[in-house]
Amino acid sequence: MNFTLTEKILREHLVDGHYEPRKEIGIRIDQTLTQDATGTMAYLQFESMGLSEIETELSVSYVDHNTVQVGFENADDHRYLQTIAERYGIHFSRPGNGICHQVHLERFGRPGRTLLGSDSHTPTCGGLGMIAMGAGGLDVAVAMGGGAYFLTCPKVIKVNLEGRPPDWVTAKDVILKVLDELTTKGNVGCVCEYGGEGARALSVPERATITNMGAETGVTTSIFPSDEETRKFLAAQDREKQWVPLEADENAEYHRELDINLSDLEPLMAAPHSPGKIVPVSDVEGMAVDQVMIGSCTNSSYVDLMTVARMLKGRRLVPGVTLGVAPGSRQVLMMIAENGGLGDLLAFGARILESACGFCIGNSMSPKTDSISIRTSNRNFKGRSGTQSANVYLASPVVAAAAALKGEIVDPRNLDMIFPKVRMPEHFKIDDSMIIPPLPEGKRAKVSIYRGPNIGEPPINDPMPEDLRGKITIKVEDYVTTDHIMPAGSRLKYRSNVPKYSEFVFEPLDPEFSRRAADQRDRGIHNLVAAGVSYGQGSSREHAALCPMYLGVKAVMAKSIERIHAANLVNFGIVPFTFVEESDYDSLKRDDDVEIAGIRDAIERGDGVVEAFDRTAGKRVLFKTDLSERQRKIAVAGGLLPYTVRKKR
Ligand code: MIC
Ligand code: SF4
């Protein structure tokens, strides 16, 4: 047989179903990761399901998102997570140890294994030749308890990388080029598999930049072969024994092939307000910048930061610009501290931030009104930086450093400077003292779990009603992201408190939504959301389904819905409908009364097409539900939690 690398690993992990195009399969998950902003809810749900043991080879709980700790909430969550880890045999990466994806790549990711993480950038570890996927916290909780993870057999896109990138062109430009080709829509259910001589020449951290930001195309994951470079990286992390060679069969067939010649690439940027709005840096040269932020799980490796340090060494920051640098992990920070890179950054005028998500999630370093901010992160959705009027451009560390040097956007090829070629070290500094290993089994039961006042019980939904009688409570446009549905930034600290966090559902689009929805819910009216294409892009945050569920949302009616978000909707008992005729989107108006008689039966039967009646417009509208049998049962039960809990009884 001629298998793609993706198919090989998935087949090896198959525990449910048959590997056939477009069919749902269940796979065994070897490793899980959670981060604090999604993890608290994931573990609360783990507890609610009555799961008592971790059944994975390895599960790690990271604290990297909510580390600002204004008020007691974050610290309470951290303590809850630490005691949960002790109780259930989970590794605990303490705050300060780094961003989950960077640390997982350094210390835990293994070629050929499967990883499920409650964060959409979990595919970062695809750079090590593993199938690494993002999912909602509830799916991760189930996987931790030994349950299968369900996905549709993916369509595999082969990305052939040929040639070598010229000086000043980096891995970030490769993924920006891929985004330019694939765009941010239409890739649901696909996996990008990289290969070719150009791919072989990239180091693992460079590959990880590419697989990380592959998330922005909407693919399920991205993967590189496990080869000599993978062995080198694992050896440099003292983990050579975990290396296995892995690649696709020579005659494997792909859904689509994309050829990129790295020698032809130039420095690129993603312009406001989408990671898919790609422009050559040379097109925007000369634009004054206010802020430069270097870090995030996309570009905060040792090589990234040392390259920046070399560029800035001996120079001074211009007065009109702020520069922030957040090393991706404590390993990176300690190494640049020891070799003088950190001193060079400080001398230049950089503000050194904690090894955490920080600015990327908008909970610190928000730029000024109407500013231009150049960032090395992966998302520039409007308002994500914490400043609604800011214009965020995404770029490589060298483009960002060039902007910090000049106070304006410059194509780094035009700098009067030799490209500082920094190589990946042969040995990284290994110090895992900020990762607390699991307690011995005999000691776990005695651990008492800390629950501060910020930790609430996860709400459990009612089963789906027989008939749906609702109102279009909000109608939104195309490309609504989870940042629009459930804002993070200053609202992040309420992640463990669903009633409070629910007050901010759709806040950036319609601050009155939450009040209106709660009021309708209390009057027995079902809330409905009408949406355009790619609804739920971006993060894996299940709160974008959980909080609407709490407000009584029963269905989302969209032109298309992104993979992780659609799965999260089902997991919380909200039906993800898509229009049979997209033009019907235009006829639905806010506040229309919409009925779906016999919705429960229709979902149970799985006819695929459901008829709704818009009473206000006096019009019938047809919707599709592309749910597997398992998902239909979950939706009817009101979500995965009631489904699992009732099944157990
Ligand atoms: C993000 O980058 O948007 C986040 C914050 O990491 C999210 C997770 C979350 O919302 O907690 C993600 O990417 O899944
Ligand atoms: Fe953290 Fe940003 Fe990466 Fe999300 S994208 S995990 S917020 S660094």
Folded structure, characterized:
This protein is of the alpha/beta class and 649 residues long. It has three domains: 5-264, Aconitase, domain 3 (2-Layer Sandwich), CATH 3.30.499.10; 272-414, 2-Layer Sandwich (Aconitase, domain 3), CATH 3.30.499.10; 468-648, Aconitase, domain 4 (Alpha-Beta Barrel), CATH 3.20.19. Strands 21-22-23-24-27-26-25 form a seven-stranded mixed β-barrel, surrounded by four helices. Strands 7-6-3-4-5-20 form a six-stranded mixed β-sheet. It has a five-stranded parallel β-sheet with strand order 17-16-15-18-19, covered by helices on one side. The two termini are 44 Å apart. The protein binds alpha-methylisocitric acid and iron/sulfur cluster. Iron/sulfur cluster binds next to loops. Residues 7-283, 284-407 form the Aconitase/3-isopropylmalate dehydratase large subunit alpha/beta/alpha domain. One of its GO terms (biological process) is tricarboxylic acid cycle. This is Aconitate hydratase, putative.
Q: What's the structural blueprint in terms of helices and strands?
A:
Blueprint: H1 5-12, E1 14-16, E2 24-27, E3 31-35, H2 36-48, E4 58-62, H3 73-88, E5 91-93, H4 100-107, E6 114-117, E7 131-134, H5 137-144, E8 149-152, E9 155-162, H6 171-182, E10 190-195, H7 197-200, H8 204-213, E11 221-223, H9 228-236, E12 256-261, E13 268-270, E14 278-280, H10 281-284, E15 291-294, H11 302-312, E16 322-325, H12 330-338, H13 341-348, E17 351-352, E18 372-375, E19 391-394, H14 397-406, E20 435-436, H15 441-444, E21 468-475, H16 482-485, H17 498-501, H18 513-522, E22 526-531, H19 543-550, E23 553-558, H20 563-571, E24 575-579, H21 584-587, E25 593-596, H22 599-605, E26 609-614, E27 619-624, H23 629-637, H24 640-648
Parallel strand pairs: 3-4, 3-6, 4-5, 6-7, 9-10, 9-12, 10-11, 15-16, 15-18, 16-17, 18-19, 21-22, 22-23, 23-24
Antiparallel strand pairs: 1-2, 2-8, 5-20, 13-14, 21-25, 24-27, 25-26, 26-27
Helix pairs in contact: 2-3, 2-5, 6-8, 11-13, 11-14, 19-20
The structure holds alpha-methylisocitric acid and iron/sulfur cluster.
